[in-house]
């Protein structure tokens, strides 16, 4: 059964796939779906494009499924693929027992899920259109939304969802265009191919992208020294062997009920609830607090070695934290006072990301082996990196001045969180009063529907899914968060379509 809604999805990466799958699973499907995306690798985004097999996803399969309410969906896809090909590639991490497939293979899963969702929609009467161009403007005209591509072609819509992905890496040292500087390491098979076997490499950053760079260079036979350089030298934690225990107290349902009652919470309230959860599981706040307190102060390699040794540790505290924060962070965040949100981001964001976005144990083992052989150092207190007139670079930090042949940029996207390809659209929305930029990044959105917030009103027809909502929401990029938000957006679109029906005689529908 169709419901009267023409939906435009602006962007065709992983968030768009989550939304398409959600829409295709409903009893009623929209009248039409139009997807706008000019990128060469539709449905994969920046993270899951074709690339080296050494790059693995960093989360277990149940946290990578795009199907709401079906955590085994990706696992079944992997198993069916193995049966179809007659081979079973071993992507199991020997230390943790978790399957970590290559990211390019996960991109294949996203592609197939998108195509299957579009086929399901089309089979039930939904008109499908793929527009291989970026949307640069979105206006309200004659009761409808009209999306314009760069050539000013209009597309009439009733609802739009901005799924524009993440921004490009920031360039804190202003090295873009300098010979020997790699501004964006992805795809690593191409961007890192020119690095010499014995080149001394500085990797700017110490997060999961920086780990990817080290893993790929190691697999490619690089034997020169690598320096992972950042302000604090905080590496991702090491993922532990999973335990089967769902949270009982620190749950999204609990925090949504708090929001429904119009109540607010303090950080102290949230910490107390997490303490109850940990105590119920046989852990304590003390064990988690100790891990948090030493982030950025403990020697990075010693910390990595210690965490690697805890993969089979008995204390479930970190495992619960790693499960709870991505799952419930978006529900907790709007309940906190603004000054506490600001303080948490300023003082603890990097710590939270380190603990809750861990690397697979196999990745940690590679880093430790390289460090033990004197081929990897973690450099903290980096002040600046400059190009030498004769070629190469100077790194200035706590350890003094160090030389490098190549610098690979592996830092997070710029703080404004608006990808270059979406900046024209966001600027247009702001000029029209349809969107307001958030000082912490992206644009203001409503917690309950992800609708744009402007002039104190929630837009019922323009929604945001993904990093563009990073200022208003928390943990906007993990697949479980994308799936949860996709469900909320689909609910909001269905509710609005039920509330108002666009008449078939509307002249804009002919555009």
Describe this structure in words.
By secondary structure, this protein is an alpha/beta fold. It is 35% helix and 17% strand. It is built from 14 helices and 17 strands. A 6-stranded mixed β-sheet has the order 3-2-1-7-17-16, covered by helices on one side. A hairpin with a 4-residue loop joins β5 (144-149) and β6. α7 (267-280) packs antiparallel against α10 and α9 (300-308) crosses α12 (361-372). It is globular. 43% of the residues are buried.
In a nutshell, what does this entry contain?
By secondary structure, the protein is of the alpha/beta class. The protein is built from 14 helices and 17 strands. Strands 3-2-1-7-17-16 form a 6-stranded mixed β-sheet, with helices on one face. Strands 8-15-9-10-11 form a 5-stranded parallel β-sheet.
Topology at a glance:
Elements: E1 2-10, H1 14-24, E2 29-36, H2 73-85, H3 103-123, E3 127-131, E4 135-141, E5 144-149, E6 154-157, E7 159-162, E8 181-182, H4 188-191, E9 201-204, H5 208-219, E10 226-229, H6 252-260, H7 267-280, H8 285-293, H9 300-308, H10 317-332, H11 338-356, H12 361-372, E11 376-379, E12 384-387, E13 393-397, E14 400-404, E15 406-409, H13 423-431, E16 451-454, E17 457-464, H14 479-499
Helix pairs in contact: 1-3, 1-14, 5-12, 6-10, 7-10, 9-12
């Amino acid at each position: 059964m169709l419901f009267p809604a023409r939906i435009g999805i602006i962007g065709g990466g992983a968030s768009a796939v989550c939304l398409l799958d959600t829409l295709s699973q409903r009893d009623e499907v929209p009248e039409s779906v139009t997807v706008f995306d000019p990128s060469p690798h539709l449905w994969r985004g920046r993270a899951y494009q074709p690339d080296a097999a050494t790059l693995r996803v960093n989360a277990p399969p149940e946290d990578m499924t795009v199907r709401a309410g079906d955590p085994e969906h990706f696992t079944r896809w992997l198993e069916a693929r193995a049966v179809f090909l007659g081979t079973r590639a071993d992507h199991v991490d020997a230390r943790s027992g978790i399957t970590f497939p290559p990211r390019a293979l996960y991109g294949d899963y996203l592609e197939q899920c998108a195509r299957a969702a579009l086929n399901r929609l089309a089979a039930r009467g939904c008109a499908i259109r793929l527009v291989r161009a970026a949307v640069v403007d979105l206006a309200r005209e004659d009761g409808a939304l009209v999306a314009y591509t760069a050539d000013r072609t209009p597309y009439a819509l009733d609802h739009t969802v901005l799924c524009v992905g993440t921004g490009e890496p920031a360039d804190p040292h202003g090295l873009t265009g300098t010979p020997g500087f790699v501004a964006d390491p992805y795809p690593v098979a191409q961007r890192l191919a020119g690095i010499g076997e014995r080149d001394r490499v500085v990797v700017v950053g110490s997060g999961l992208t920086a780990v990817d760079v080290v893993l790929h260079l190691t697999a490619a036979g690089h034997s020169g020294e690598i320096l992972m350089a950042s302000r604090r030298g905080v590496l991702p934690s090491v993922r532990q062997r999973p335990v089967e225990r769902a949270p009982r107290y620190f749950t999204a349902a609990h925090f949504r009920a708090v929001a429904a009652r119009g109540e607010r919470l303090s950080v102290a309230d949230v910490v107390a609830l997490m303490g109850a959860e940990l105590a119920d599981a046989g852990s304590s706040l003390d064990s988690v607090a100790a891990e948090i307190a030493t982030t950025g102060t403990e020697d990075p390699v010693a910390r990595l070695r210690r965490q690697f040794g805890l993969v089979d540790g008995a204390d479930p505290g970190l495992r619960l934290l790693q499960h709870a924060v991505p799952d419930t962070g978006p529900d907790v965040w709007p309940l906190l006072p603004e000054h506490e949100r600001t303080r948490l981001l300023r003082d603890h964001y990097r710590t939270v990301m380190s603990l809750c976005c861990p690397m697979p144990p196999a990745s940690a083992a590679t880093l430790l082996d390289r460090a033990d052989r004197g081929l990897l150092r973690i450099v903290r207190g980096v002040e600046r990196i400059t190009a030498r007139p004769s070629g190469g670079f100077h790194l200035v930090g706590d350890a003094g001045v160090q030389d490098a042949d190549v610098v690979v940029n592996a830092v997070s996207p710029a703080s404004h969180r608006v990808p270059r390809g979406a900046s024209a659209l966001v600027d247009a929305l702001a000029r029209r009063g349809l969107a307001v930029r958030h000082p912490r990044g992206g644009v203001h959105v409503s917690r309950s529907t992800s609708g744009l917030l402007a002039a104190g009103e929630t837009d019922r027809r323009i929604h945001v899914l993904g990093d563009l909502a990073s200022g208003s929401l928390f943990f906007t990029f993990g697949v479980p968060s994308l799936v949860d938000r996709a469900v909320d957006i689909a609910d909001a679109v269905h509710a609005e379509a039920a509330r108002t029906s666009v008449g078939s005689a509307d002249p804009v529908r002919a555009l």
